[in-house]
Design brief:
The structure is a homodimer of 259-residue chains.
Chain A (H helix, E strand, L loop, with lengths): L14 H10 L10 H8 L3 H13 L3 E4 L2 E4 L1 H7 L3 H21 L2 E8 L2 E8 L14 E3 L4 H8 L3 H9 L13 H14 L2 E4 L6 E9 L6 E10 L5 H20 L6
Antiparallel strand pairs in A: 1-2, 3-4, 3-8, 4-5, 6-7, 7-8
Chain B binds a DNA duplex (30 and 30 nucleotides) through helix 3.
Chain lengths: 259, 259
DNA sequence: ACCGGGCGTTCCACTCAGCGGTACGCTGTG
DNA sequence: CACAGCGTACCGCTGAGTGGAACGCCCGGT
């Protein structure tokens, strides 16, 4: 039973709040959702859902088929205009490509939003390991390499917030002890690298490096390489990841107006 | 002077219409837009723009900075959940990567929407030619290889609509005679390939192939490789492009529920 | 075959969310 | 200094939006 993500602290009293609730009722893996399911997920009255969905269809944010609604291409187009993500993606693409060619493992670019990682890009080939990450998707920071490196290179308040909050266990390897995580973050800060050893997903290893801002201390983004246990050795790629992140950072630094 | 894209035939009488007008006031290259510019582009009263923008900020669809508003990451995240684009991107990625590695030129994945191409992916490296295409962006079909191949493999009504409408000249090489374009489309249909020779952008050449649907006739999408005049020879890559498109088509055909 | 549950669509009297003109303080420029 | 332009806040008014109810259709179970 999936309930729509908070449209914005429950304000289903406004048209916009309802529309956003409807859009956010679609999960990352959903294809078509019938009207009745949208009603269940939003808790809005049927007539309202029907009307707002119809309006969203009119505005090309939803698409209606015989079997239900789905998020429309107009939303994809709008989403790809988000200035920060768009720019980062465009500038980072060549570096991500190089890294992919060098490793032939899954390459990720991510940013921090609040206390989570948001993936801006995911590049993989035919032999990519099955990873639950998704462009535009989110993961916790404490159990992902990319998240740890972002956490290590961000404001202490954010770090404290994550360390003092729950560190949900996702696998038997997840580090759930704040002390242990803090040590990992310290090491990430020293070395400019973080590793992930089946902490978020069984069978997956990862190494990540920060894309530093012009202050040289905080991370704008991070780049990682992920591969499967057995074949993948994170240490073997750490220099390539670090080089890519450093090169991207310096390219971004040279841009007028920054990100 | 840029006016916001039609929110949906001018319905600025509704909250949703206004919100969408505001979001679509941001162009593909815009970074920050101050409130006054949003007022100018939408034609909405200042107080209304201020209020709706504030609501959109609240819902993480816009972001407010000292110097103006920009489309927010929440919109990027929503956009990346669009089912059709998301699926296509995910399934196509390995094929696009292979093609990039083989050519080291810019690789595009596009779909048809109405009488335009919408780019779903753009993959390029450090030496990529300067191309105006953009993920989530649109181009006319008549002067792009990817557009021509989509046009050749779609319903005759669409083809007729494009051929009977204006074929705007974008470069001295743009084909603006319907008869000539029709011949190119015929050839694209026979050969399963279309070429672009500086028709959309001076200095750019391109070859594209359709990703056919299970009916073997209509195109779900198309893949292209683009490079600069002088270095790039489209004919040299035509087999690789066709192979990638064919492989992708067959992978999509094997998916339960299709796209 | 019949029944009931669930689906999607439509309607309309009512109401409060949304509206935008106005006022104000601030900033930058000539 | 004056003025234009900016962004923010306010509030009486009203019509856009509401959602309960009704209806027809479909499907699965007995």
């Amino acid at each position: 039973m999936r309930v729509a993500e908070h449209a914005g602290d429950g304000d289903l009293d406004t048209v916009l709040g309802k529309a956003v609730a409807l859009l956010r009722a679609f999960g990352p893996e959903d294809r078509l959702l019938p009207l009745a399911e949208l009603v269940r997920r939003t808790g809005l009255p049927k007539g309202t859902v029907h009307r707002v969905a119809g309006d969203l269809v009119h505005h090309r944010l939803l698409e209606k088929t015989d079997h239900g609604y789905r998020l429309a291409g107009g939303l994809f187009e709008l989403g790809m205009r988000a200035a920060t993500e768009r720019t980062l993606l465009e500038v980072a693409m060549p570096f991500l490509q190089d890294l992919y060619e060098r490793t032939h493992e899954t390459v990720h670019l991510g940013v921090r939003d609040g206390t989570e990682v948001v993936y801006v890009a995911k590049i993989g080939g035919h032999r990519q390991a099955r990873s639950p990450s998704r462009t535009g998707g989110r993961m916790p920071m404490h159990c992902t390499a990319i998240g740890k490196v972002l956490l290590a290179h961000t404001k202490p308040a954010v770090r404290a917030a994550v360390l003092s909050g729950p560190l949900p266990r996702r696998t038997p390897h997840t580090v759930v002890a704040p002390g242990l995580l803090e040590q990992q973050l310290g090491r990430a800060l020293e070395t400019g690298l973080a590793f992930e050893r089946e902490e978020s997903t069984p069978g997956l290893l990862c190494v990540a490096a920060p894309v530093l801002d012009t202050d040289g201390a905080s991370a704008l983004a991070a780049i990682s390489v992920t591969g499967p246990v057995g074949r993948f050795r994170p240490e073997a790629h750490q220099n390539a990841v670090r080089a890519a992140a450093t090169a991207l950072a310096s390219t971004l630094a040279r841009r007028p107006g920054g990100l």
